[in-house]
Design goal:
Structural class: alpha/beta
Number of helices: 9
Distance between the termini: 23 Å
Number of strands: 15
Helix content: 25-40%
Order of helices and strands: EEEHEEEEHEHEHEHEHEHEHEHE
Shape: globular
Bound molecules: NADP nicotinamide-adenine-dinucleotide phosphate
């Protein structure tokens, strides 16, 4: 029997600055039938993540670029339609990396089976997936917050940032968010239990951040860079730590971005460490059970922005780069 018609979003042109819908193209094809050791799945959810902007840019990075005409990469949750691997059966729900397409064929060893009774399966792409792991690794391994310290996180209502602040609270620290709207700030404080949140698009960011962090900043979990980083730098305490996780304000830049003044790092003996979540694979065994238990107990809450239809993935991705998502951005197929 032939495999079902597969709808794919492929890269049509490399974006310059903010991506445009015309940089992407929807095409149809048929996948090869799964071979021994492989599974065929139907995509239920596609994860949209900021790192995809780097993959379609063609610039040198830690991972291989998507070439023109290739399907855009991405993590997915899917239902197994056919299995030629002993560990999977038709109907199983799996998390894999099919990318922006309606179906995928993958080696059984590259996907993990999900238990829908444990948590909604979409969380495998957010709070219980790579973004949750990123928060866990960056905050606990590099930030190392101590009780009473102040942890500031940017993109605070997002997939990574929301988990960072809630884990910081569990470790006895004060959590202060920075986000791009009053609604996002209200959610971060009212729903997630952060101590304060500053809207960086309104008012005097430095003055408001100073008021929210009267004792200065001990850990800054960096997700955005640019003006936000410049303001934070002026409030860093002695021996502060900066897990350098992302710089989303620069991902569409067409020119070199002016850097911040580094003097506060020197004077305050600040540790800045860039990291990629996959650096600490050994924590991938320890963290998921702990994150799952925290989510089940309501200690970590999460929110999802769900866009319907594969054809709307490009617009949703552009929206993510504009801050239109409110929580983990997913596409439901
Ligand atoms: N190092 C790693 O291994 C790793 C892994 C995962 C993610 N990351 C990084 O973590 C960061 C957050 O990722 P996420 O998946 O959790 O995304 P997210 O926060 O759910 O969504 C992205 C958010 O970034 C903010 N943003 C967009 N453009 C901005 C700009 N010009 N200036 C400031 N903020 C802007 C927007 O929130 P506002 O409305 O609040 O501005 C937007 O909602 C990204 O930088 C990403 O690259 C790194």
């Amino acid at each position: 029997m032939p495999t079902p018609v597969n709808r794919q979003i492929v890269l049509r042109s490399r974006p310059v600055g903010m991506p445009k819908p015309g940089d992407f193209e929807l095409v149809e094809s048929r996948l090869p039938a799964p071979k021994d050791g492989e599974i065929l799945s139907r995509t239920l959810y596609l994860s949209l993540d900021p790192y995809m902007r780097g993959r379609i840019s063609g610039a040198r990075s830690y991972a291989q670029s998507v070439e023109i005409g290739q399907v855009i990469v991405g993590a997915t949750v899917g239902e197994v339609l056919e299995s030629k691997h002993p560990d999977f059966a038709k109907g199983d729900i799996v998390q894999g990396y099919s990318g922006w397409q309606s179906h995928g064929v993958a080696a059984g060893g590259t996907v993990r089976k999900l238990d829908p009774r444990q948590a909604p399966v979409s969380t495998a792409l957010g709070v219980l997936g790579m973004p949750g792991m990123t928060a866990y690794v960056g905050l606990l391994d590099i930030g190392r917050p101590k009780p009473g310290e102040t942890v500031v996180v940017s993109a605070a209502s997002g997939a990574v940032g929301s988990a960072v602040g809630q884990i910081a609270k569990m470790k006895g620290a004060r959590a202060v968010g920075i986000a791009g709207s009053q609604d996002k700030c209200d959610y971060v404080v009212g729903e997630l239990g952060f101590d304060a949140c500053v809207n960086y698009k309104k008012g005097d960011l430095l003055a408001e951040l100073k008021a929210a962090c009267p004792g200065g900043i001990d850990v800054y979990f960096e997700n955005v860079g640019g003006d936000v980083l410049r303001a934070v730098m002026q409030l860093l305490n002695m021996n502060a730590r900066i897990p350098l996780c992302g710089l989303i304000s620069e991902y569409n830049a067409t020119d070199t971005v002016p850097g911040p003044n580094l003097r506060p790092l020197l004077f305050n003996r600040v540790l800045v460490k860039g990291f990629i979540v996959s650096d600490r694979m050994e924590l991938w065994a320890k963290a998921p059970p702990e994150l799952t238990a925290w989510v089940a107990a309501g200690k970590i809450k999460y929110r999802e922005s769900v866009t319907e239809g594969l054809e709307n993935a490009p617009r949703a991705f552009i929206g993510l780069l504009r801050g239109e998502n409110f929580g983990k951005q997913l596409v439901k197929l």
